[in-house]
Amino acid sequence: MAEQDDGLQHRAGGGSGRLSRRLKTSAVIVGVWTLISLLAASQSYIASRSLGDEPQWGALLSQQLPAYLVWILLTPLVLFVARRYTLERGSLGLHVPVHVLAAAACGLLYVFAWMQWSWRVGGYRVDVSTSDVFWAFFRARFNVAFLIYWAIVGVEHAMSNYRRYRDGEVEASRARAELARTQLRALKMQLQPHFLFNTLHAAASLMDDDVRAARRVLARLSELLRATLESEGVQEQPLEAELDILRRYVEIEEIRFGDRLAVEWEVEEAAAYALVPPFLMQPLVENAIRHGVEPAAECGSVCVQARRADGRLTLAVEDDGPGLSLEGSTNGGTGIGLRNTRARLAQLYPEDHRFQLAESAHGGLRVEIEIPYRREPVGEANDVSDTEQAMGPRQAPDPG
Length: 400
Known about the structure:
Blueprint: H1 2-50, H2 57-84, H3 92-121, H4 130-207, H5 211-230, E1 237-238, H6 239-257, E2 261-267, E3 275-276, H7 282-293, E4 300-309, E5 312-319, H8 336-348, E6 354-359, E7 365-372, H9 384-391
Parallel strand pairs: 2-4
Antiparallel strand pairs: 1-3, 4-5, 5-7, 6-7
Helix pairs in contact: 1-2, 2-3, 2-4, 3-4, 4-5, 4-8, 5-6
């Protein structure tokens, strides 16, 4: 029943839309021909004055206005023929003769209407036969009517081409947007299995030595996956929500590495509500741990930074590992995580982002991202409690 109601409403909406377009078209037709008739009457008035006559404006209007307003009735017919028999390549041989006949018919109707009005209402006194009067008006007005017909067809043809061009641009824009969304979804789907595989591998490696720790990793992983599902279909989210997910991942790595991993957080309060793509920083931290901390025999540190300056948001991840000096340590930024991050930034901020790999001040690697600073609408950005409630508590009960 609801579907039927929706269908009826849709049809009703479509009918009202068509009626509105027809009313607008009719208003334009009436307005254009009224303006043309007023201009013609003004021209006659000025010409008569220049010859020394004293024309009556009302008389000129009574002569010009009705004759031109005949086209108010003829124009919809011309538009119908123009839309039915389009002047496209491949159909000219069939459609041009139709338009020639239609133009001749409109010309005859126009001449007849002008003659009738001028003869019967305009006060003209004619002492010759009707046929002579008709041919006199035919010679004076038919060529004008013929040209008017083709002018209307030309305007309709130009407008039709413009509408097709505009619709094509809209469809192309939609196609480009859909392609970008599809590519972003594909990149995100590629990233999540990569992360999941690495985390499960870490849990498996702990099973032989510390089952309790492995169970804690799996518990944290379930929280992280649940939080990740909350961001499904979201192209951007507040940085605080992104950092909340990142902290869950860091907890997993801290369980795995124990005292060998130290993570510092340097996040400015002004940057907390900036909009960022979901799962943007996790690959950077994962890369820092894998290449900066894991190979080290002693404790390694990772620093996560976020700051706002001059309308830009800068995100950075530093480690104190071997950095770029170790050949292949970061694959030149072409590993799955970093390559994926580059691609996502290129999709979301084509010419308005920076992604840089450099030596950090501590001798390790510094990965820095700069994107435009944007905040979500007021009332949503400050509603941090809702985000935290949706993601659940930061610490889950230890299953062990």
